[in-house]
Hints:
The structure is a single chain. This protein is of the alpha/beta class. Helices cover 42% and strands 14% of the residues. The protein contains eleven helices and twelve strands. The chain has helices at 10-31, 38-51, 62-72, 90-97, 116-129, 149-158, 211-220, 244-276, 303-315, 345-353, 365-380, and strands at 55-59, 79-84, 101-105, 133-140, 162-166, 174-175, 178-179, 186-190, 204-208, 289-290, 296-299, 354-357. The strands form three sheets. A seven-stranded mixed beta sheet has the order 1-9-8-5-4-2-3, with helices on both faces. A three-stranded antiparallel beta sheet has the order 7-6-10, with no helix packed on it. A two-stranded antiparallel sheet has the order 11-12. The longest helix is centred in the last third of the chain and has 33 residues, at 244-276. The protein is globular. The two termini are 19 Å apart.
Amino acid sequence: GESLMEFRDLKKQYQVLKPQMDAAIGKVLQDCNFISGKQVAELEEKLAQYVGVKHCVTCGNGTDALSLVMMAWEIKEGDAVFVPDFTFFASAEVVAFEGATPIFVDVDERSFNIDPDKLEQAICAVEQEGKLRPRAVVAVDLFGQPADYRRIEEICRRHNLLLLEDGAQGFGGMLDGRRACSFGDAAATSFFPAKPLGCYGDGGAVFTNDDNLAELLRSLRIHGKSPVSKYDNIRIGINSRLDTVQAAVLQVKFEAFRQHELEDVNRAAELYTQYLGDIVKTPVIPEGFYSSWAQYTIILESREQRDRVQHALKEQGIPTMIYYPKPMHLQGAFEQLGGREGDFPVSERLCGQVLSLPLHPYLAEEDIKFVSNAIRSALER
């Protein structure tokens, strides 16, 4: 059927923010400062302050944010980088792009995030085999919930590994009062339009407290330029900037995000959990964790049941998504790593059972009720 509702309602958000949004974009058009306008540096300062780190370095997209850190750390062939098996392709792609080997790690079934016990096992296995140099961990804040940094930071310290927080979906989340994107040695996020804080195109950022890393990133994102001159290139870099229109859009959205959107999306998620908690596995947010709810993902009993529920909802005009239908170790691009079915049972099971429901800060309670009732009747059939 035709969708009656939006999966993530950017149209409604624009209607609410229209006066500020049009003014902010209009100013960029008037000033014609399309690349590196002052709005970019202003935004970086605001975001760094919010996250609670010294530096925010914006760039062209979330994947480049991850890649820039890999480049800065000189991750290369022969290096092992540990990545969750249940995530978006980019988390592992950036490792392989540098010539390094992604080592996949199964996830915890209820948090959807990397399982610290299995991470420890994977690191020890690579150390014992002695073929690859363990260098770094990419921990993903999947669906808006921070990974278990209490344990992951400690594991990385013990094994002397760099830790990159992939906060592409995590911006605004918290763990023990610390904001997402403040963990590890550096963190990356994405401003893709559907993310908790999104722009009107592609955008991304790296967060860090490391002054040297920040300076290196600022050079790498503009062709490896020297801090003094744009035309003196002191290293090989890439071209990955957040443009001024996107920074202006993000300034407007960030105000709304801070003032009410993060609270509103948490309220919407709580309502789903109230309505659905007794009939399906709903997301679990443990003590001390706070999610920014990039997705609200339920777990069904089987692939057949998941597909049946998805179909029933579609017939009622309710859009849903499957994040993710295929684990990392079974992706065609990683075939040469020899991943087989059965290697990562939790990730494989989740790929057949997960379903993400419409969720955004502007979702009305009656819509949540409508979706929940549709799921209930699909399960009773």
